[in-house]
Amino acid sequence: MSKITNLLERIDGAVWGPVMVTALIGTGIFLMFRLHFLPWRNLGYALRSVFGKDSHKKNGSGDITPFAALMTTLAATIGTGNIAGVATAMVMGGPGALVWMWISAMVGLATKYTECTLAVRFRERDQNGEMCGGPMYTIKNGFRCKKLGMVLAALFAVFTVLASFGIGDLTQANSISSAIYGTFHIPTWITGLVITILAFVVLVGGIQSISKVSSILVPAMAVLYMMAGFACIFSRIQNVPAGLAQIFHMAFTARAAAGGVGGTIVVTMMNAMRAGCSRGVFSNEAGLGSAAITSAAATTDYPARQGYISMTGAFFDTIVVCTVTGLSIAASGVLGTKGPDGHVLNGVELTMQAFQSVLGPMGAWIVAISLTLFAFSTIIGWEYMGEVALKFLVKNPSASYVYRVLFAFMSLIGSTVEMQLVWTLSDITNALMAIPNLISLLALSGVAVKETVIYQKKVVVPEREARRVRRKQKCVQNT
């Protein structure tokens, strides 16, 4: 078993190594140039669209509202990476890793916009009348070479199904049970049983049930975590300027030391870049294609409209939530702290220590509860993605119901067993999803550009002009 574990760890290091990270970031840069930087230029428009009334309406074809689609996407992406992943990045790459997480997210806006726009453009309805889309349908319907398209589409679907059980279910349930046991000393099998029952209740209703729960759960859990995070940051506000200076300094310094009252770590700029970019991509999933699966179910009249709404997921996930975690750790001065076993605190333990240093035992409870909510939302979000991928591979409608029951049951297994091997396998399948997806993004980028130009001329520019007219009228009325 140790030989298999070592082999898988080497494969994991290779697929999530510099080549994959460079491919993900490089594709984002290429798409940003092809789109004439519109994902950046229209970021304000995209954010207004998310919070506007239209995002809650069903305008056009689809199954769920644009807002519900975004919340379901965020349910799958906002998870342990936002709490434990940020801490891990800052230990591996120092505080400067946070800057590279921001950079990966800003570049990832173009990637996520493109994959979601294409998903809506090439989606189709299944035999039950439900909308299905994502990279597998984009590749199948968009590639001129149908044989190559079917091979790449099938590979993506297979990797997605495997990843849904791994990174989307087993590992998330394990994170929940471990956090609950470590904080409240509740046996893992009890936690696993509760997760399984709750997951089954939500999943049995399909995308309608998942989207309704996500629309309530995601905003609530984000507000809870961010309020606690802001409390940590503002209670140590005197440390924030120095913390920010250290973050930017270590992001671009060849070799530097960082830490606080707890201890010190020494890292290089390459450590910061590698850890920040890889953890950033892992957190917001830009380029992996997962968000496109949920976006394809949204009701919309233009593919680009949902593309803009969906791309804000990378912004909320990394620029907002991950930043709260990173600044809480930087301001608290616990980076480099050693635990009772003599090892440097890492992952969720470091984040708990940061919150606990300010809020006391309540800080650790809030992190544990937030991690539980984040991970549970990831479970239900990833189930839908895996189910759509399974539908692509297996046309029998009953397979979806079997998958839902099996997916819920796997949460119990994930809660009660050691998961190191599964974590490694999950990382590998998660990364392998990116390969066919990135190929499709590069090959079909011209289609995304055309959709963007059409939407820019017919919707964005007219709406912008209408806002200018309204502002002028208000100015005249006020004078």
TrEMBL record:
Pfam families the record matches: Na_Ala_symp
Protein name: Amino acid carrier protein
Gene3D superfamilies: Amino acid/polyamine transporter I
Compartment list: Cell membrane
Source organism superkingdom: Bacteria
Family membership noted in the UniProt record: Belongs to the alanine or glycine:cation symporter (AGCS) (TC 2.A.25) family.
Membrane topology, from the record: Multi-pass membrane protein
Keyword terms, alphabetized: Cell membrane, Membrane, Symport, Transmembrane, Transmembrane helix, Transport
Matching InterPro entries: Na/Ala_symport
Entry's transmembrane regions: 15-33, 148-167, 179-204, 216-237, 243-269, 314-335, 355-380, 401-422, 428-449
